[in-house]
Specification:
Blueprint: H1 9-16, H2 20-27, H3 35-48, H4 54-61, E1 66-71, H5 75-78, H6 82-97, E2 101-106, H7 110-121, E3 127-131, H8 139-146, E4 150-153, E5 170-173, H9 175-188, E6 194-197, H10 204-216, E7 225-226, H11 232-245, E8 251-254, H12 257-269, E9 279-284, H13 287-290, E10 298-301, H14 304-318, E11 342-345, E12 348-350
Helix pairs in contact: 1-2, 1-3, 2-3, 6-14, 7-8, 9-10, 11-12
Amino acid sequence: MTEEPRPTLEAVAARAGVSRATVSRVVNGDPGVREVLAEKVRRAVDELGYVPNRAARSLVTRRHDAVAVVIAEPETRVFADPFFALQLRGISKELTAHDIQLVLLLTEGRDDHERVGRYLAGGHVDGALVFSLHLDDPLPGIIRRAGVPTVFGGRPGWPEAEGGGPDAPYVDCDNRGGAREAVRHLVGLGRRRIAHITGALDQTSAVDRLDGYRDALPDVDPALIAEGDFTPAGGERAMRELLKREPELDAVFAANDLTASGALRVLRERGRRVPDDVAVVGFDDMLPVAEQTEPPLTTVRQDIEEMGRLMAGMLLRGRGVQERGAGTEGEGAVESGAGPAGVVLPTALVRRASA
């Protein structure tokens, strides 16, 4: 049985009683077509089951209707950490609303960096959303040389020559302010030996949270700071180290919820009651983690999904494709601490049973 030929622009134009050029403008989202004609075209498209040829359309519009999401972490980390799922959900919702495809690219080593650079430079996507970067990561420079519009997740901390600097577009939360509020909460509970388990200190979010901790405790003993890596295992290692160095500590501010979950496990193993003996506060408010720890975790909430949505919206506005769907703005965003191209979202302390 022979396959029915696909409907063409000419067939849609004949059905609608308009020119081929008018059909092309409507299909490509051009707003300069009278509504009565646009409605005839849309009706003909539905009746014929016309599907635009994306490859042909990209030659005309110079858009590919695809955005690369580049996560600078190995797949084992990405698929184990709920943070990435939440951020991807926000990005996906925004891109879907504008009929844009998401292309996920993960990096684990030098070969992956080169692969991502080749793909971006090959003209397959209209832009890139990049997050979880490390300060020595070559990706910013690779992406800059690829020449694709880019929005970063997290405050850029790399040199301006490599795509950083005050004009690099980014979305972040108030990491420093949120950390400061968390530690002040512990001080208000009467805790005096407040430790901090950092995140990976080659990432700006971890550095900013450490700075917020020091803002609240400017004369803190360095022995109360242990380096983690934003993972449960890192939280366990750091908690054991802290208890060995400072057995009388009575509170812990962990750089994220996963780190806090690891710290809680060690405290439970050592017979330390939470919050009676040691109060614990995390950062993120990832509900799959924060509500299921024992006890439920007091933490600093950042709207991870909204950050992803805003990243995608910022990129799409920059590419002039906002007319494809409902517009979005960064409601609730604050400019404090952000550069001209940055959006910094507020945080809020969520009190549960751990502190």
